[in-house]
Specification:
With 108 residues, the chain is an all-alpha fold. 72% of the residues lie in helices and 0% in strands.
Length: 108
Protein backbone atom coordinates (compact mmCIF):
# COMPACT_ATOMS: atom_id res chain seq x y z
CA UNK A 1 0.00 0.00 0.00
CA UNK A 2 2.87 2.35 0.82
CA UNK A 3 4.46 1.75 -2.60
CA UNK A 4 1.14 2.54 -4.29
CA UNK A 5 0.84 5.77 -2.27
CA UNK A 6 4.38 6.77 -3.24
CA UNK A 7 3.65 6.04 -6.92
CA UNK A 8 0.46 8.12 -6.86
CA UNK A 9 2.22 11.02 -5.12
CA UNK A 10 5.09 10.86 -7.62
CA UNK A 11 2.70 10.87 -10.57
CA UNK A 12 0.74 13.80 -9.11
CA UNK A 13 3.93 15.77 -8.54
CA UNK A 14 5.02 15.06 -12.11
CA UNK A 15 1.67 16.30 -13.50
CA UNK A 16 1.95 19.52 -11.48
CA UNK A 17 5.48 20.12 -12.75
CA UNK A 18 4.40 19.42 -16.36
CA UNK A 19 1.52 21.92 -16.05
CA UNK A 20 3.59 24.56 -14.27
CA UNK A 21 3.55 27.03 -17.22
CA UNK A 22 -0.22 26.75 -17.69
CA UNK A 23 -0.87 27.27 -13.99
CA UNK A 24 1.51 30.25 -13.88
CA UNK A 25 -0.29 31.90 -16.82
CA UNK A 26 -3.67 31.21 -15.27
CA UNK A 27 -2.57 32.76 -11.97
CA UNK A 28 -1.17 35.84 -13.74
CA UNK A 29 -4.43 36.31 -15.66
CA UNK A 30 -6.45 36.03 -12.45
CA UNK A 31 -4.23 38.65 -10.79
CA UNK A 32 -4.58 40.96 -13.80
CA UNK A 33 -8.34 40.52 -13.70
CA UNK A 34 -8.41 41.47 -10.01
CA UNK A 35 -6.22 44.54 -10.58
CA UNK A 36 -8.31 45.89 -13.47
CA UNK A 37 -10.92 47.14 -11.03
CA UNK A 38 -8.32 49.31 -9.24
CA UNK A 39 -7.47 51.27 -12.41
CA UNK A 40 -9.38 54.47 -13.08
CA UNK A 41 -11.64 54.48 -16.14
CA UNK A 42 -14.15 57.16 -16.94
CA UNK A 43 -16.50 55.10 -19.12
CA UNK A 44 -17.30 51.59 -20.22
CA UNK A 45 -15.90 52.32 -23.70
CA UNK A 46 -12.50 53.23 -22.22
CA UNK A 47 -12.52 50.01 -20.22
CA UNK A 48 -13.06 47.95 -23.38
CA UNK A 49 -10.31 49.82 -25.25
CA UNK A 50 -7.83 49.69 -22.38
CA UNK A 51 -6.90 45.99 -22.16
CA UNK A 52 -6.83 42.98 -24.39
CA UNK A 53 -6.07 39.61 -22.80
CA UNK A 54 -5.19 36.75 -25.12
CA UNK A 55 -4.63 33.20 -23.90
CA UNK A 56 -3.91 30.45 -26.38
CA UNK A 57 -3.33 26.80 -25.59
CA UNK A 58 0.03 25.41 -26.61
CA UNK A 59 -0.41 22.75 -29.28
CA UNK A 60 1.29 19.61 -28.10
CA UNK A 61 1.76 17.86 -31.46
CA UNK A 62 -1.84 16.71 -31.70
CA UNK A 63 -1.74 15.37 -28.19
CA UNK A 64 -5.28 14.34 -27.26
CA UNK A 65 -4.60 12.50 -24.04
CA UNK A 66 -6.36 12.37 -20.75
CA UNK A 67 -5.79 15.23 -18.30
CA UNK A 68 -4.72 12.78 -15.61
CA UNK A 69 -2.07 10.94 -17.49
CA UNK A 70 1.42 10.23 -16.29
CA UNK A 71 4.53 10.42 -18.42
CA UNK A 72 4.78 6.66 -18.95
CA UNK A 73 1.18 6.44 -20.19
CA UNK A 74 1.69 9.50 -22.39
CA UNK A 75 4.86 8.05 -23.92
CA UNK A 76 3.14 4.70 -24.46
CA UNK A 77 0.20 6.35 -26.21
CA UNK A 78 2.43 8.58 -28.38
CA UNK A 79 4.60 5.59 -29.31
CA UNK A 80 1.51 3.60 -30.32
CA UNK A 81 0.28 6.53 -32.43
CA UNK A 82 3.68 6.81 -34.13
CA UNK A 83 3.78 3.05 -34.82
CA UNK A 84 0.29 3.20 -36.34
CA UNK A 85 1.30 6.16 -38.52
CA UNK A 86 4.47 4.37 -39.68
CA UNK A 87 2.44 1.24 -40.42
CA UNK A 88 0.05 3.28 -42.55
CA UNK A 89 2.96 4.86 -44.47
CA UNK A 90 4.60 1.45 -44.98
CA UNK A 91 1.32 -0.02 -46.25
CA UNK A 92 0.90 2.89 -48.67
CA UNK A 93 4.45 2.50 -50.01
CA UNK A 94 4.11 -1.25 -50.37
CA UNK A 95 0.89 -0.74 -52.37
CA UNK A 96 2.70 1.69 -54.67
CA UNK A 97 5.55 -0.78 -55.06
CA UNK A 98 3.14 -3.59 -55.87
CA UNK A 99 1.42 -1.37 -58.44
CA UNK A 100 4.81 -0.60 -60.03
CA UNK A 101 5.67 -4.30 -60.15
CA UNK A 102 2.30 -5.13 -61.70
CA UNK A 103 2.75 -2.40 -64.32
CA UNK A 104 6.27 -3.59 -65.09
CA UNK A 105 5.12 -7.21 -65.53
CA UNK A 106 2.31 -6.10 -67.89
CA UNK A 107 4.82 -4.28 -70.10
CA UNK A 108 6.87 -7.46 -70.52
Amino acid sequence: MLNMLIAIMGDTFERVIENRDVNATKTKLELMSDLVSTLHQTSAEEEEDCFMFIAQPDDDEGDEGDDWEGTVNKMTRLTANNINHLGYQLHKKSDRLQDSIDEFTRKD
